[in-house]
Amino acid sequence: MDTACPSRFGTTIHVTALDGIVNVNSLFTLAVFVGLAWKPTDPANSLVDDPNCQAGSSIAEDLIAFHVYSFSCFLFSSLIALGLKQAIRIARNSTEAHRTLFTLDMCHINRTALRFGYLVSAAGSVCGCGFLMMALVNVVQIKLGTLACGSSHTYGAVIPLHIKKEAAAGTIVTGFGQVECVAKGY
Q1: Counted domains in the chain
Q2: Which residue range is the domain that position 117 belongs to?
Q3: SS3 38
Q4: Is residue 164 packed enough to be buried (19+ CB in 10 Å), middle (13-18) or exposed (0-12)?
Q5: Distance in angstroms (rounded) separating the CA atoms of residues 142 and 122
Q6: What's the N-to-C CA distance of the chain in angstroms?
Q7: Is residue 52 part of a domain?
Q8: What share of residues in the chain are helix, strand, coil (percent, to 5)?
Q9: What is the sign, positive or negative, of the torsion defined by CA atoms of 161, 163, 167, 169?
């Protein structure tokens, strides 16, 4: 318990944010499994005519590795989020009397631990998205040719993917800061 600052702390906002993390991670985990079900070494899967631009076995191996790394990051992030959510529910349902303001339940939670948990969970999701993006880059290289060949189609697929991933990661980090500001009452 946070004894230094016994102020009210809105937990409903945090539980909703944690639900969002778990739901998004579940969707990305589904994408990882769909990607793992695809057979990248099938020669019919490539649109490349030049044999020098065809992806080698190392790119296919990296594709599988990045899918596994992505899955482990999403699983880690979801487990941290579910653990934090359970801790909030336990604190909310403890035998100590807690206050209710309108329909928002209030309880005392160690803010530092909660913020650290959010940070770790968000970092896991961002890392999972990064690995998933690298797996998709490998899919593009298998389908359209390696980046070393300089195909405009390959770069046309990879560059927007990278830009959108960075924008999404920024949104996750910015959203994390907004949840903390709302909880503090700013």
Answers
A1: 1
A2: 11-40+48-181
A3: coil
A4: exposed
A5: 30
A6: 23
A7: yes
A8: 75, 5, 20
A9: positive
Q: Is there a domain that residue 30 lies in?
A: yes
Asked if residue 100 belongs to a domain, the reply is yes
Indicate the SS3 state at residue 104. Answer: strand
Q: Is 79 helix (H, G, I), strand (E, B) or coil?
A: helix
Give me the amino acid identity at 106: M
Rounded CA gap, 46 and 49, in Å?
8
Q: Tokens for 163?
A: 């830009």
Predicted confidence pLDDT, tens digits, the chain (186 residues):
444 443 344 567 777 778 888 888 888 888 777 777 777 666 676 777 787 878 888 988 898 899 899 999 999 999 998 888 887 777 766 655 555 544 445 556 677 888 888 889 888 988 998 898 899 898 888 888 888 888 888 889 889 888 887 887 777 667 655 555 444 554
Decide if 6 is inside a domain. no
